[in-house]
Amino acid sequence: MRRIDRTVSLPYWDSTLDNEMGNPANTILFSTEFLGNGFGVVTTGPFANWTTSEGQLRRNINGGSRLVSRNFINLIMTRCRTRQIARPTATATYDLELEHGGPHVWVGGQMRGINTAAHDPIFFLHHAFIDNIWERFRVRQSTVCSPRINPSTDYPPATGEHAQTRSMDGLPGYRNIDGYRNYWTTTWYRYEPALSCPSCGTTPYITCNTARNVCVSTERRLVAQEGAIAGGRLAFSPAETATSVSAAEAKALDERLTVGPVFDAPPAEPRTQRAQLARIAEVARRAGNANPEDDTIVIG
Description:
Helix 3 (96-107) packs antiparallel against helix 4. The protein is globular, with a radius of gyration of 21 Å. The protein has a single domain, classed as Di-copper center containing domain from catechol oxidase (di-copper center containing domain from catechol oxidase). The strands form 3 sheets. It has a two-stranded antiparallel sheet. It is mainly alpha-helical. The protein has 8 helices and 6 strands, in the order H-E-E-E-E-H-H-H-H-E-E-H-H-H. It has helices at residues 16-19, 70-76, 96-107, 122-143, 183-187, 238-241, 247-255, 270-287, and strands spanning 39-41, 51-52, 55-56, 58-60, 206-209, 214-217. Residues 148-169 are annotated as: Disordered.
């Protein structure tokens, strides 16, 4: 595309900004302003009512695994060889492929399936961020590691479809190792640096947590079916109230979706699991005869 129009760009989804929240499921990203609702059939936002080969586009955010963590990025930046962060030789601690699977499973719906993930546009934003992490690692190889390493030739000992001399699918004339060439980032594209405190960019949707000195996504206005945020109260967004479903309903829809093989991914964090249980408890409470004025729920 950039050969035709060099102004074309693709934003990356830095999910560490959401992972730094008290409850990542409350991120502003899954709202009408950005990617649409995160529970059930996507009926709000720019991708509302999309139809895929598996039916309507669906999501089940926070349904499993976790988002990319700053700690993981810091860990892989302590390595110097691609084989230390890539399969089949990386250990789980430094496995970029495993970490990449986390947001796939966390978003749920079509995104969790290897054969269906690209049916949700968030796929491309997520993969742009994984490529961003890899490029930061490559820059470090040639500028920080001792001895210096040429990232364009540091191919891991992969075989089969990932063998370095195998022809790329859909790109005749290119081999897998050609994707490691510095040519791509020196000629065609570059990455904007990650946001940092105190400014965290100029957007009102990201703030600086001064206590931890990290940029954090803001919370969206939660709809009644979603349950309350940690220690907070329910807020209502008229555009979403009529279309959003509860986390429990989204889970049921997700389980009925046929996506084939699912991505390998890290286990869910206890923090995220508590958030899931809290929302389920909220749904159960509202189904009973609890005081409808009491909208407070605390996640311990």
